[in-house]
Specification:
Layout lengths: L4 E5 L9 H8 L4 E7 L11 H21 L4 E4 L2 H12 L3 E5 L4 H16 L3 E5 L21 H10 L25 H4 L10 H6 L4 H14 L4 H4 L12 H5 L5 H15 L2 H26 L21 H8 L6 H13 L4 H14 L4 H11 L5 H12 L14 H8 L4 H6 L8 H4 L7 H6 L15 H19 L1
Parallel strand pairs: 1-2, 1-4, 2-3, 4-5
């Protein structure tokens, strides 16, 4: 039997439309599929708790899939370059195939690995398995990367269909000799003491098959009304595809083609508009991924360096109140509790809670980014940092500094019937809609009738909205004036 190839899985945990897998299987050589838990290489950020939970179950699903193709999944832990070298020595592998990642630490590591492999006469092939287009292919007329979303999106649309998806191979040969593997339990990715993942188990089922089912369900139920429905947190109006996309259980190209096919089949202008609105969200993900490639310090440094002088507040008590949904603002608290329970938060509410942290509390956006990294099942280095910098006003194509979400009006506008707040903040559920998003304005008798004691059963607001807004505007205004 010829020497095998190593197929290195990363954030591409699927069989379909997987270019590296398809290319490895097409050689006809034996294939050793491996996933390496690398949290120790220089610059590689360890996964947050919610992501570790998802990874465990996604790998279990992937293992079933690759075994069905014919070659069992190997699990190894440690620095990727050292693990790959050890696997090469054990198996006599003649090369490694993988799909690319675009963060700085992964690029540095993968470049070094590719150079070492080629220097030793082995094959090293990498592919695009996670983006519609490679970051270096989308540029302005002057040859620079886009830093504003709308022209970037127009450039994506001008390229048309991103191309055919890769078919799943019928089989993948295994090497003659079995390869030693860790077990998932060896890695202790799941929480045990305490086991806080009950809400995640109730809401999610990771894996490629679930991703495909979820996309079809979204197309059939929520996509026709996506233009408006995506902003209503109490409704099932979004696709819920973000964790599946992050872990590569489905590709953006698969989503693009399936969504365009759905729109064409409907032959309705309204449906077509909904499809475009959804694909624009896929485009926003793509935009952040491209920014991460061209501006590798995005997760750690303010894009607008003027914000290095912003007077952020170090307030551990306020941060803790925000983290646990005890701010006294119901829409904020509902979002943070949804996050804690399910590992996910509605996109509209993400903007509200992020704005509240950086503008009402003036706590640094990196504190919020850290919390999201640990608690989100879809925590992504590019999207997480890009979106936080957008809200804070220091990122690319950022929200203007004077845009400060009013948590009361946001709740009244997008959770009009209170379905979302009543689910996640049940201690105020008996308030009428008029006061649900501002319980401190409810008459004392009404509060007593609803069983609410502000400051006891539910917190009073930790800041006054009007005063906090003005303080933030003054701070942002001073920063702007200092730079002019």
């Amino acid at each position: 039997m010829p020497a095998p190839l190593i197929l290195w899985f990363r954030r591409d945990l699927r069989l379909s439309d997987n270019p590296a897998l398809a290319a490895a299987a097409a050689t006809g050589d034996p294939v050793v599929p491996v996933f390496i838990l690398d949290e120790v290489s220089n610059g590689v950020r360890p996964l947050g708790g919610a992501s570790r939970w998802w990874l465990h179950h996604s790998l279990a699903s992937l293992a079933n899939g690759v075994s069905y193709l014919g070659s069992p999944l190997v699990l190894r832990r440690g620095p990727a370059d050292a693990v790959l070298q050890q696997l090469i020595e054990e198996t006599g592998a003649k090369g490694v195939f993988w799909n690319r990642l675009y963060d700085a630490a992964s690029i540095d590591r993968d470049t070094r690995i590719k150079q070492d492999l080629q220097g030793s006469g082995r094959v090293a092939e990498s592919f695009n398995g996670s983006l519609l287009h490679e970051p270096w292919t989308i540029k302005t007329k002057t040859g620079k990367p886009y830093s504003v979303f709308t022209p970037f999106w127009k450039a994506i649309l001008a390229l048309g269909d991103p191309g055919a998806t890769e078919q799943t191979p019928e089989q993948m040969k295994a090497p003659d000799n079995p390869v030693d593997s860790d077990t998932l339990d060896d890695w202790s990715l799941l929480p045990t003491n305490p086991d806080w993942a009950g809400g995640l188990r109730d809401m999610w089922k990771p894996g490629e098959q679930t991703a495909q089912i979820q996309l079809r369900t979204f197309h059939d139920t929520a996509l026709p009304d996506y233009g408006d429905g995506r902003d209503i947190p109490g409704a099932n109006g979004t696709s819920m595809m973000s964790p599946h996309l992050h872990f590569g259980e489905i590709s953006p190209r698969q989503i693009w083609r399936a969504t365009r096919f759905w729109a064409d089949a409907k032959e309705l202008s309204a449906a077509s508009g909904a499809a475009q609105a959804y694909l624009r969200e896929i485009g926003w993900r793509e935009f952040n991924q491209h920014l991460q490639f061209h501006f590798p310090n995005l997760p750690a440094q303010n894009v607008n360096q003027r914000f290095d002088a912003f007077p952020w507040v170090d307030d551990a008590d306020a941060l803790a109140a925000w983290q646990r949904g005890r701010t006294g603002y119901p829409i904020v608290d509902a979002g943070m509790r949804e996050l804690w329970e399910t590992g996910w938060m509605h996109n509209r509410v993400r903007m509200v809670v992020a704005s509240f942290l950086v503008k009402h509390l003036r706590i640094h956006w990196r504190q919020g980014e850290d919390w999201f990294w640990d608690t989100l099942v879809d925590a992504d280095p590019a999207n997480n940092a890009g979106n936080w910098q957008w809200v804070a006003g220091c990122g690319f194509d950022a929200a203007p500094y004077f845009r400060i979400f009013n948590p009361i009006l946001q709740g009244e506008r997008f959770d009009t019937d209170g379905r979302y707040v009543r689910r996640w903040v049940p201690e105020i559920a008996d308030l009428p809609d008029k006061y649900l998003h501002k319980p401190w304005e409810a008459p004392a008798a009404l509060l007593e009738e609803a069983g609410i004691r502000l400051g006891d059963t539910y917190p009073s607001p930790i800041v006054d909205h009007k005063a906090a807004r003005q303080t933030a505007l003054d701070a942002y205004g001073a920063l702007k004036n200092a730079a002019s």
